[in-house]
From TrEMBL:
InterPro entries: BolA, BolA-like_sf, BolA/IbaG_stress_morph_reg. It holds the Pfam family BolA. Belongs to the BolA/IbaG family. It comes from the Bacteria. This is Acid stress-induced BolA-like protein IbaG/YrbA.
């Protein structure tokens, strides 16, 4: 799987203000900014992203996904 393919899958099911991906095709590191993360704990945010991948996580197309998730306000603070 390519970064573009992975990004397309995530953004098709989760509105993102920003997403960046790095990886080798099976192991990925993502930074994801979405208003849907408002009021959610880190584990809930990660579960929301994993839900966008569905069977891709279970069939090992995406073996590992490490991520940092931010709300737009959190992201604005990080970017300063």
């Amino acid at each position: 799987m390519t970064a573009d393919q992975l990004q397309a899958i995530i953004t098709a099911h989760l509105p993102c203000e920003h997403i960046s991906l790095e990886g080798d095709g099976r192991h990925w590191y993502a930074t994801i900014v979405s208003a849907e993360f408002e009021g959610k704990r880190s584990i809930q945010r990660h579960q929301r992203v994993y839900a966008t991948l569905g069977a891709k996580m279970h069939t090992d197309e995406v073996h590992a996904l490490s991520m940092k998730t931010y709300t737009p306000a959190e992201w604005a603070a990080v970017e300063k």
